[in-house]
Design a protein that fits this description.
alpha/beta, single chain, elongated, 11 helices, 6 strands
Length: 268
């Protein structure tokens, strides 16, 4: 889509190289060097996409959209082709308008990144997908029966240890089935934190947490998942730690109720 103008504005795909382009700071956001440094470490020419540029009347070619990708190419010494969607006939205000237009599009969500990682056969994403499928969950943005939308929280739990993510899904599903309320991010992380801290034990709770017993106890929690989270939010007002930590502490107390020889050690 070209900016609206009474003059003739055209654009076409033009192959360029490092050195052909220039970035005018007057119509660009501030360069984030930390972002460039991160992109350098993961540089792949086939992931550059198409940069949007403006061929000005003075002969310079300004990068309207894609300056971080272009600076990354410079940093790694890339000598190959950079595909550009090159505009001609734009004024500076029109370049700025085009920049805003291109940067108001919705950014990829955490779910988008996860699904793309699955397509790319990323080992962690594939491992998590197997756990989700084994426990009857799918991944998607909307809250509905059997839909896990808190994928970012589950990925953080997986980062603790893969088996902790599997155990977390087992406990949540065993306690509340596939209700949307069971898949809330703070709940996923809270259960994951508890299991990671104390480990998975044998039936009866020897050597760690008895997952089946934990699920049964959570199933009886007053108010269900929302009641548990509400309890934790109340404690987070007066205690240290974010809500997921408070969720873990509430579950810790619930698990230890009326236990004698197999109580979990104190949280702190």
């Amino acid at each position: 889509m070209s900016p609206k103008t009474d003059r003739e504005v055209s654009h076409q795909i033009v192959p360029r190289r490092v050195g052909d382009l220039w970035v005018d700071p007057n119509v660009q956001r501030t360069l984030k060097k930390s972002r460039v440094n991160k992109m350098v470490g993961a540089f792949r020419p086939d992931a550059l996409g198409v940069l949007t540029t403006s061929h000005r009347s003075d002969g310079t070619i300004h990068v309207v959209d894609g300056q971080h990708r272009y600076r990354t190419c410079e940093s790694v010494g890339y000598t190959g082709i950079i595909q550009t969607n090159e505009y001609s006939g734009l004024t500076l205000p029109e370049e700025a308008a085009l920049f805003r237009l291109l940067n108001t599009a919705e950014k990829p969500t955490r779910i988008d990144h996860y699904l793309i990682a699955c397509v790319e056969q990323d080992p962690s994403a594939i491992g998590l997908a197997k756990f989700l499928a084994a426990h009857g969950w799918s991944v998607g943005p909307s809250a509905m029966e059997g839909r896990m939308s808190a994928i970012g929280s589950l990925e953080r739990v997986y980062a603790f240890k893969p088996e902790v993510a599997d155990a977390t899904l087992a406990v949540l599903t065993g306690a509340w089935g596939h209700r949307p309320a069971a898949a809330q991010g703070v709940l996923v992380e809270g259960v994951g934190r508890l299991i990671f801290k104390y480990g998975i034990g044998a039936p009866g709770g020897i050597g760690g947490i008895d997952l089946d017993d934990l699920a049964k106890r959570l199933a009886k929690f007053p108010g269900g998942p929302d009641g548990l989270i509400g309890n934790a939010r109340g404690q987070s007002v007066t205690r240290n730690g974010n809500v997921s930590i408070q969720v873990a502490k509430v579950i810790h107390g619930t698990y230890n109720e009326r236990r004698r020889t197999t109580k979990l050690p104190p949280w702190e």
